[in-house]
Specification:
CATH architecture of the largest domain: Alpha-Beta Complex
Bound molecules: cyclohexylformamide, zinc ion
Number of strands: 18
Oligomer: single chain
Shape: globular
Strand content: 25-35%
Helix content: 25-40%
CATH superfamily of the largest domain: Medium-chain alcohol dehydrogenases, catalytic domain
Largest sheet: 7 strands, mixed
Number of domains: 2
Structural class: alpha/beta
CATH topology of the largest domain: Quinone Oxidoreductase, Chain A, domain 1
Radius of gyration: 20 Å
Number of helices: 11
Length: about 375
């Protein structure tokens, strides 16, 4: 079997809190239900940085869960894809549980072990370093690498004329934001939306608000340059969260009524409290920003009930990836979903700089380009 091993270069997260280490590793060929993808580039999402630093995550591990590349080998049982297909790699789901069978793969009953377990569902891994095995299959891909193994399910075929180097973020962050507005909240023509946090997820939500014809799109953030970009991408109003009371400002913009929809893409207590308070009667608040395990929010239940308000959590924008990712690519081609405005490309050798620029807010969406 040794002669089948593929030489790869990958960014390895060796220990919690440590940097990414770019290393030469060996990768086994695909199993029958897998494809081998030559990764062209992979987006970096905050979940990668959380996983890099979390003591409870398996280490060492190859992270990366917004891969884009070309199928180079297919396992014997693969039917959806062929060698040469261009693919975006998305989150991993089992395909067998009640949620998956209902067409709601982002609520797959096994999504957490499949995305964060550092191995396949059966516990096996396929990546080898000089010092021993390295965890892989992060989100069913581990795409901070020149080559990655993905399942037929989470490798999404995309148009060959689309700019493959930029497409990785369509695997997670962009559908999370856009899908929250389009699929989950179902924001409609003339309605009002406030988005807390204008990172990649929040900016995608703002762009989607414009796409669906929301009349009032309010972006809230702490960074001036992001608020300016949010305005260019569709926000009708921008609120600097450092200047005065955000809830009062949203109420003033909406004539005292509040908004039809709010979306928290920050995960911070303050933004979450505001996202609830700004809701109009019959309004809905969506949470995509994540929260530490066990985090609680307080809610005035009388206010919730008498206003017929809704609060809901959203994962991956309720996307059915095989449909939603190509749809966003077509909208991008038409100039109606200009996510390239968020992206800065870094070489794999500069992945630690990319992580730093993401954490300081300098770069909204780093994309890591693999050496060829
Ligand atoms: C999510 C994806 C699905 C499980 C929980 C976390 N984050 C993506 O970056
Ligand atoms: Zn992500």
């Amino acid at each position: 079997m040794a002669h089948d091993l593929i030489d790869i270069t990958a960014a390895v997260s060796r220990e919690p809190g440590g940097p990414f280490s770019v290393e030469a590793l060996k990768l086994e060929p695909p199993r029958p239900d897998e494809v081998l993808v030559r990764v062209v580039a992979a987006g970096m999402c905050h979940t990668d940085l959380m996983a890099k630093d979390a003591p409870h995550m398996p280490h060492p591990m190859v992270l990366g869960h917004e891969g884009a590349g070309v199928v180079e080998q297919v396992g014997s049982a693969v039917r959806k894809l062929e060698v040469g297909d261009h693919v975006v790699l998305t989150f991993m789901f089992c395909g067998r549980c009640a949620s998956c069978l209902k067409g709601e793969p982002s609520y797959c009953e096994r999504i957490l072990p499949l995305c964060f377990g550092g191995a396949r569902e059966d516990g096996s891994t396929s990546t080898h370093g000089v010092a021993g095995p390295v965890h892989d299959h992060f989100f069913g891909q581990s795409s901070f690498a020149t080559w990655a193994l993905a399942s037929e399910r989470n490798a999404i075929k995309v148009a060959k004329d689309a700019p493959l180097e930029l497409l990785g973020p369509l695997g997670c962050g962009l559908p999370t934001g856009a899908g929250s507005v389009i699929n989950s909240l179902k924001v409609g023509v003339g309605q009002s939306l406030v988005v807390f946090g204008t990172g990649a997820v929040g900016m995608a939500a703002v762009m989607a608000g414009r796409l669906v014809g929301a009349a009032t799109i309010i972006a809230v953030d702490l960074v001036d340059s992001r608020l300016a970009l949010a305005r260019e991408l569709g926000a009708t109003h921008a609120i600097d969260a450092r200047s005065g009371d955000v809830v009062e400002q949203v109420m003033a913009i909406t004539g005292g009524r509040g908004v039809d929809f709010s979306l928290d893409a920050t995960g911070t207590d303050k933004a979450i409290a505001s996202a609830l308070q700004v809701l109009a009667v019959r309004g809905t608040c969506g949470f995509v920003g994540g929260a530490p395990p066990g985090a609680l929010a307080s809610l005035d239940l009388g206010w919730l009930m008498t206003g017929g308000r809704t609060v809901r959590g959203i994962l991956e924008g309720d996307a059915v990836p095989d449909q939603f990712i190509p749809a966003l690519i077509e909208l991008h081609r038409q100039g109606r979903f200009p996510f390239d405005r968020l992206v800065k490309v870094y070489d794999l050798a500069d992945i630690n700089q990319a992580a730093h620029d993401s954490e300081t807010g300098k770069t909204i969406k780093p994309v890591i380009r693999m050496p060829s």
